[in-house]
Amino acid sequence: MSCNIRVNFIVEGPTEEVFVRDVLKEPLALSGIYVKARSVEVKRKPIKGTKYLKTGKQFIIRRGGLLDYNKAKNDIIRWISEDTEAYITTMFDLYALPDNFPKYDYAKRNNDPYKRVELLEDAFKAEIDNRRFIPYIQLHEFEGLLFSDVEAVDEVLKPFHGGSKLAELKAIRDAFDSPEEINDGDETAPSKRLLNLYKSYEKPTEGSRIAQRIGLDAIRKECKHFNEWLASLEALAIYR
Q: Do the beta carbons of residue 226 and residue 145 sit within 8 Å?
C-alpha cells in the first residue's frame, strides 16, 4: 500500500519524537500513513546579522517543552497553513499540561482521567477549528505506556541502573486498572516512579528502547486511549 496519507506530529519533546520515529512510523506506514514529527515550538527569535543571509533563515527556533498553550496553538496553526495537504496531530502529556489550555479548570474538576482528557481534547479541537487537526493528549504521560509490560522495562534498565526493580514495578502496575491511569502527582507520575527506581533513566533513548521491546500491539492492548488515537489515524487511510 502506498503512503499517500500524511500526518504531521507536534509532540512535547525529543522523547516523543524518537517514539514516533522508532515505534509508530513503520506500523503506520503499513496502514498507508506517512508521518513526520517535530517538537513543539517554545521560542522564536529573529536572526540578525549578514552571516545568516545566505541560509534563507529568518528565525532561530527553539523546540521542546510544553510550557504555554498559546505557543503550541500558534505552532499547530502555522504548520497547518504551511502544509495544506497533511493532517496534524499532537502528543502532549496530561501531566503538567499548561493551565491556560482551553477548558483546563473545568476538566480538572472531573475525577475520571479518561473523561478529563476527552474534555480537553474536545476543547482543543474546537479552538484549532480545522478538519485536518486530530488532538491527542497522553494519559498521563509517555512513560505510562511503558508500564504496559514492566518485565520489558526491567530487562532494558536493570543492566545500567543497579539491578532489577521488577517487584517494585509490578506493585505499581498492579495498583491500577490500566497503565494510563498511573497518576500525575509531582512524585507519582510514571516518569517520576521510573526515576525513583532507576536513578539515571534517560527518557529519549531508553524510553523508546523499552517501547520497542514491549511492542506496539501490547501497548495498544493495555492503553485504550492510546489505541483509540492510533485507530483514528489508521482510519484516515481507510476512508480516504
A: yes
Dist CA 96 CA 94 (whole Å): 6
Same-domain status, 107 and 172: no
Tens digit of each residue's pLDDT (9 = 90 or more) over 204-236: 899 999 999 999 999 999 999 999 999 999 999
Q: In whole angstroms, give the CA distance from residue 189 to residue 147.
A: 12
Residue 53 sits in a domain whose CATH number is: 3.40.50
* Helix (H) / strand (E) containing 98: none
45 pLDDT band, cuts 50/70/90, is low
CA angle (112, 228, 39) in 5-degree steps: 90
Q: Are residues 134 and 153 in the same domain?
A: no
Q: Give the three-state DSSP class for 47.
A: coil
| Cα distances (angstroms) measured from residue 221 to each of 28, 39, 60, 181, 230 | 16, 27, 41, 14, 12
Output b/e per residue, 25-43; b: 16+ Cβ within 10 A.
beebeebbbbbebbbbbbe
Residues 39 and 106 in one domain: yes
DSSP H/E element including 91? strand 87-93
Q: Quote the pTM value.
A: 0.91
Look up cell 500526518; give the residue: 7
pLDDT tens digit sequence for 155-177: 999 999 989 999 999 999 999 99
53-106 confidence digits (pLDDT tens): 555 566 666 667 799 999 999 999 999 999 999 999 999 999 999 999 999 999
Question: Number of folded domains in the chain?
Answer: 2
Cell of 185: 502527582
